[in-house]
Predict the 3D structure of the following.
Amino acid sequence: MRNMIIASTSTVHGGGFLEYLIPELTTRFEELQIKELLFIPYARPGGLSHDAYTAKVAQALKCTNIKVIGIHEHASATEAISDSQAIFTGGGNTFVLVKMLHDLDCMQPLRKAMYKGTLYLGTSAGSNICGLNMRTTNDMPVVMPSNFKTTGALGYNINPHYEDSVAGSEHMGETKEQRIHEFHCHNAISVVGLREGSYINVKENKEVLCGNLTARIFVKDQPAAEVAPGYDFTALNL
């Protein structure tokens, strides 16, 4: 039984950190009677310290009266995951995050927590690790994980911060869509391009697109397709 919020980003344009997700989070916290959240700060955006990143989350969730504790404050990271009521993995660099999770043997305990119904929130890199592997991240490989496998809580991959090409743009590099097609030259895993402000609301066997924008689905050897809010992604699961 999964209970997850898999979001493209922590912050939408013009909003505060986690602000657009607060209504949904507040509802879930109340429904599940959650009082404490375990934060995984390993992605460390811009080299932010674990303490500073955890404090940022605590401030953002202050209005919910949830106590936030960083995983790095625990003697055992794996036990912290197993014992948690709710888990949030923040954004940053997916390579840094995945390396830490594998180095600390946390990937499998995290998967088990997801499947036993622990509330899980992921944004950006924290959403990348919900797929089968991290190969559709947008990030630079600043470190090398032991492998690219992630939790596999979804049967497809996520590409957060998905952007469409802009007509008339002078940018000559590959678009996000072209990069995903490159991925499909070597991999058969389907990919969901999540635009900013969108998230996948996972409850048990439902994986529903939420937010105001469509998402873009990429299936190997098929044309890319747009899907509207309310779409259930379970058909993509391998």
User: Anything to note?
Assistant: The mean pLDDT is 95.
